Amino acid sequence: MRRNFRVSSALFLILMMAMVLMVVSCKKAKVVEKPLEGGTDKTAAQDIAAMPGPRPEAGANLPEIKKQNENILIVYKHTNPGYAEAYGFDTLILRALTDGSGMIVGGTLYQRTASGEREFAQFNASISGDTISLAASSSEQKPRSYTIKTKADRVEVSGARDVVATLNKSLVFSSPDGSYKEIYSIDSSKENLLSEIQKANVTLEKGSWTYPENGKAVYNQTKPEDTQNIEGFQITLWYQDKGDYRFATEGPEPLNEVYASGFAEALAGDYGLVNAVMLDLMLSESTYLRPIYAFAISRKGLGK
């Protein structure tokens, strides 16, 4: 009788210990669940959303455009209504390379379509003394070539396009005969950087930069007679993101959103003028990019 009682007591104790272990185990499981409610992905997404400026490299249904082995990445998204429908894409991607001195020596231009990045054109530069030969090949366009003569603070382009660019207290793009000029101040000692577009010594448009807050600049350009700025455009630039530039341009309608990585370093360096010309030839979006080239060059010695 005592033996049966001892066995029953032992079984009872074993069952009680098992129940205690189960309760403790359940309590631990509940504690582990709490940190999973927030998650690191959510925190990272919040950090990205808080970054100022547009994010044209991020696609809703496409992989994000990321810098790879290139020195300069420019993502230029056309935001005006109907552009994608008319052309089959809305975003240009330039991946450009520089040599050891920081000068652009080539690049590849892509179109971002619904199926991903599609190569559109390749640019290859060969350098001989003060002459750069830039060749552009494309599956959709005829091959193009440019001869670029570099001198102190002066670059002359001939070939598929003829243009002269100079750099002193202003970045100036002009026709070879000088009858047409785009003048963008780079004099950082001035309160605002002013610009003026001239043809036959007649002012066609004027522009200026203002700085509403730290790390943000706004450029407005309009015609002198357009007092209500109906035909002009405005660029809003954020430039405090570790040297990367993000900017958006609006006229009567939205025009673009741009992300430029490595851009500031290339233009604020020793080859800022040549690099501005090379980018101008590769992207062919002069109207809305030349003020940005000048702004970047003006920051030489001020940080990126």
Overview of the molecule:
The chain has helices at 2-33, 40-50, 83-87, 263-267, 272-283, 286-298, and strands at 72-78, 91-98, 104-113, 116-128, 131-138, 144-151, 154-159, 163-167, 170-174, 180-185, 194-199, 202-213, 216-222, 233-241, 244-250, 254-261. With 304 residues, the protein is of the alpha+beta class. Strands 1-2-3-4-5-6-7-8-9-10-11-12-13-14-15-16 form a 16-stranded antiparallel β-barrel. The chain is globular and about 45 Å long.
Give a quick set of tags describing it.
304 residues; alpha+beta; 16-stranded antiparallel beta barrel; globular; disordered N terminus
What's the total number of strands? 16
Radius of gyration: 29 Å
Amount of helix: 25-40%
Task: Report the average pLDDT across residues.
Answer: 85
Structural class per helix/strand content?
alpha+beta
Helix and strand topology:
Blueprint: H1 2-33, H2 40-50, E1 72-78, H3 83-87, E2 91-98, E3 104-113, E4 116-128, E5 131-138, E6 144-151, E7 154-159, E8 163-167, E9 170-174, E10 180-185, E11 194-199, E12 202-213, E13 216-222, E14 233-241, E15 244-250, E16 254-261, H4 263-267, H5 272-283, H6 286-298
